[in-house]
Amino acid sequence: MSRSAHPAGPRHADVLPEGHWSAPPADLNHLDQRIWSRTVGRNGDGAAEVAGMDVRDLAAEFGTPAYVLDEADFRARCRAWRAAFGPDADVFYAGKAFLSRAVVKWLYEEGLNLDVCSGTELAVALDAGMPAARIALHGNNKTTAEIERAVTAGVGRIVLDSFQEIVRVADVARRHGVRQKVQIRVTVGVEAHTHEFIATAHEDQKFGLALADGQAAEAVRRVLMLEDLELIGIHSHIGSQIFDTAGFEVAARRVVSLLAAIRDEHGVELPEIDLGGGLGIAYTPEDDPRDPHEIAKALGEIVARECEAARLTPPRLSVEPGRAIVGPTTFTLYEVGTVKPLEGLRTYVSVDGGMSDNIRTALYDAEYSVALVSRTSDAAPMLSRVVGKHCESGDIVVRDAFLPADLAPGDLIAVPATGAYCRSMASNYNHALRPPVVAVADGQAKVIVRRETEEDLLRLDVG
Ligand code: LLP
C-alpha cells in the first residue's frame, strides 16, 4: 500500500492551526534533548534507548502503551531544585503530578518534601516512609477523615483553604491534643497563563482566600485566635505551565506585603511563605522553560528586597514543583495500529492508548511532540495526527506532528514529557487498562506501577 507523504510546504501551512509548527523539523530522527529525558538517545540500530535500554526490548517485556520513566533524570531534577533553593528553603514535590511509592522513596533520598492533596495521596506517602513532618496537606475541600489522618500522622503543615476548614482543622487538632501547624492559602490576584499573566484578575476561582477583599486578613485573624492551630505562614499558588517569572514575583511581593500587614496588626512575624508550583516545561521545541536556578534567584531576590523594605526578617521560603520535576522524565511508548492518510489533510496514526493515558490534549489543548523510536527513517515527513483507540473523535494524543511517511503498523512511537498529569489523570474510559510505569536506570528496568488487568476492573464491578 502506498501511503501519501505530505511534503513540507504551503499545504502544511494551510492545515496547521496558527501557532503550531508550520514546517517539519530538519531531522525527524533527532531526539531533541530539550524535550526528552537526559539518558534518551539512539543506539547503533537506530532505535531509541533510555538509560541504556532499547525501547523495543522495553515494549517486548512490558507491553504498550507504557510510561517509561528515567530515574536518573528524576533524581537529577530533584537535586537541581534542592541546589537552586539551598538550605534556607524547602522543596515540596507536588504529588498530584505523579505519585507512587518508588517516587516517594526517591524524593526522600534526594532531600525533598512532599505536597499531597488527598487522603489517599497521604496514604501512599506514609506507606512509602516519607516522614509526616515533611508532608504538606492541600485541598479546597478536605474531609474530616482526611484531616484526622493528617493530624494524627503528624503532617508538617495543613494548608487552609476556607473559613469552614479553619474550624474543622482546629476541632480535629483539639480532639487529638495536637497544636497543628498550618498555612493559609491566599489568592494574590495574579492570573498566570502559559505565556502571560494578568495582574488582579484571578480571585474568581475555588482555591484560597483573596487578599483583595480582605478574606485572607480575616482568615489570619481567626487562625491566630485558635490555640489549637499554629500559623506558620502564607501560601500562594498562581497556576501551572508558567514560563515567565514575573507572575511569581508579583505573588511574592503581595505575600510579603501581607506578612508586613500581619506584623503591624498582630505583632507577629510569620516564619514561612510558600510560593507554590507551576514552573513550565518543554513539550515542543517552541517551549522555552526557565530553570530552577532562575526561579530561585528571582524569588530569593524579590523576597529579600520586599522584606528589607518592610523591615521584616526574611521568612523561610518553600516551593511546590510537580510538572517541572517529573514531566520531562517520562515518555509514553505506543505501538502504531493503523495509519490512515486523508488526502489533502493529514494522516491519522492510531496508537494502542489515547485519551485514557493522556487526557491533557483533549482537556487543555496541550501540545506534545512525537517520534518514531523503534527505528530511524529517511522517508519524507508526513503531517500526522496521533490518535488513540477510544470511541471519541476528540481522542487525540498529538494534534499536529510530523512522522516519517513510511510509518507502518507495528512501529513504536513515543510521546515525550508525559511524566506529569498523564498517569495521575489516566482513566478507564472504554474499560481501558491503565498502563504501567516502568522506571529505567543503569540498564535496568523495573515496573513501579503495574499495568491494570481485567481482573482489577472486574474486582471493582461487584455485580
Ligand atoms: N502546588 C499547588 C497548591 C498546586 O495546586 C499545584 C498544581 C502544584 C503545586 C504543582 O503545580 P505544577 O508545578 O505541577 O505545575 N492537571 C493540570 C495541572 C493542574 C495543576 C494543579 N495544581 C495539567 O495537566 O496541566
From TrEMBL:
E.C. numbers: 4.1.1.20
Alphabetical UniProt keywords: Amino-acid biosynthesis, Decarboxylase, Lyase, Lysine biosynthesis, Pyridoxal phosphate
Cited Pfam families: Orn_Arg_deC_N (PF02784), Orn_DAP_Arg_deC (PF00278)
Entry keyword Isomerase: no
All residue ranges annotated as the Orn/DAP/Arg decarboxylase 2 N-terminal domain in the record: 72-326
Main function: Specifically catalyzes the decarboxylation of meso-diaminopimelate (meso-DAP) to L-lysine.
Quaternary state and interactors: Homodimer.
Protein name in UniProt: Diaminopimelate decarboxylase
Organism: Actinacidiphila acididurans
The organism's taxonomic lineage, starting at the top: Bacteria, Bacillati, Actinomycetota, Actinomycetes, Kitasatosporales
Gene for this chain: lysA
